[in-house]
Amino acid sequence: MRKLTTTAVAAAVLATLSGCDADDAFGNDRSNAESSYTVTEPVRALDLDTKGGHVELIATEADTVKVTEKLSYSDDKPATSHKVADGELRLIGAGCNTGDCSVSYRIELPAGTELRVDSGGGHITGEELAGPARLRTEGGHVDVSFVKAPDRIYAASGGGDITVQVPSGPYAVSVDAQGGKSETAVDNDPSAERKIDARSDGGDVEIKYMR
Q1: Domain tally, the chain
Q2: For the chain, what is the total number of helices (H) and then of strands (E)?
Q3: 85: burial class by Cβ within 10 Å (0-12, 13-18, 19+)?
């Protein structure tokens, strides 16, 4: 795998904003930084791992991927990295050695991109998606909608609610809500080719058709 450079992304746009304009729960100053870049290489799959932060997925008709990283930290600034290899975009939002920190992402990408997202505690949201998805967060909500039904959707949270909206049709649905309630408002057919697996250890789980 090779790390993206300005040359590799061709028309990459980088903008960074930083400052100490917020306080943490203990009244200490927090710093914030934001950067954006565009990946012009072909991307068929996204693999994202952030130690703590929200992830917003926005499907587009473009053939490029635009990534916005939002960093928040009380001491050490968290490191981030991005690489493309064999059509897979790998994003990492690492933790920090001291203090409290998070890396949140806003990602605009082609609708059919395969998604593998893992957050250490933030929310995961997505609109008008169409590719296979494996989405997991340690403690936030998962709220995603699909305009085209992929073969498989996996959504998991360590403590938040899960809402998955899909187009009409039969699905093989498996849900597990530990400590919450579950509702499956789609045609649940165990023999269906398209599968949805959703589970939360502390929130509600809802599977329904898009309106």
Answers
A1: 1
A2: 0, 20
A3: exposed
